[in-house]
Amino acid sequence: MQKAKITVSGVSRNSEGVSRLETVNTGTFTEKNGYCYARYEEAEASGMSGTTTTVKWNSSQVSLIRHGAYEMQQEFAEGGTYAGDYRTPYLMIPLETKTKKVRIKKLPYGWKIQLEYDLAYGATDMNRIMTTILVDLRER
Predict the structure, then answer these.
(1) How far apart are the first and last CA of the chain?
(2) Cross-strand partners of 103
(3) Which letter does DSSP use for residue 71 in this model?
(4) How large is the greatest C-alpha to C-alpha distance in the chain, in angstroms?
(5) 3-class SS shares of the chain: helix, strand, coil, % to 5
(6) Which ranges of the chain does DSSP label H, i.e. alpha helix?
(7) Distances from the Cα of 92 to the Cα of 55, 62, 67, 87, angstroms
(8) What is the DSSP string of 111-140?
(9) Cα separation, 85 vs 67, whole angstroms
(10) Residue 100, H or E segment
């Protein structure tokens, strides 16, 4: 396991407009059985304090897994649809993810993952989300 700087940035579009989010986290990276794993603790500023997030990927698919105060699993494979639940300390929200694009690129200093997907949760309208996850393995 090695230290990693994990930057997650995203743009969400729906009928109400556009929102942007970026978080920078210190975590770990490891490779095992053909998969890569980046793991970090959610910061208090994310609103998910007490939650560990793991990003797991191979050459064609990505999983986003949260454990702790907030529980969720999303799967991303180009053209695929995944249904699951987002569990908070207060309620459970059904999710449906329809993946449009998955791009995974090995960089000289780490990895870059780009996802484009439609997300429906609860009774809200569809959100088109574009997320970039940058796993930087350079020594700090």
Answers:
(1) 15
(2) 114
(3) B
(4) 44
(5) 0, 75, 25
(6) none
(7) 21, 23, 14, 4
(8) EEEEEEEEEEETTPPPEEEEEEEEEE-S--
(9) 12
(10) strand 92-107
**What pTM does this model have?**
0.90
pLDDT in tens, the chain (140 residues): 899 999 999 999 988 889 998 999 999 999 999 999 999 999 877 778 889 999 999 999 999 999 999 999 999 999 999 999 999 889 999 999 999 999 999 999 999 999 999 999 876 678 999 999 999 999 75
CA torsion, ordered 74, 80, 83, 85, to nearest 10 deg? 10
**Are the C-beta atoms of 64 and 76 separated by less than 8 Å?**
yes
Report angle CA 32, 34, 36 to the nearest 5 degrees: 60
Structure tokens at 72: 């969720």
* Dist. CA 43–CA 51, nearest whole Å: 8
Neighbours of 52 (CB within 10 A): 16
In whole angstroms, what is the distance from residue 9 CA to residue 112 CA? 11
Which is nearest to 83 in space by CA: 120, 131, 125? 120
State which amino acid sits at residue 6: I
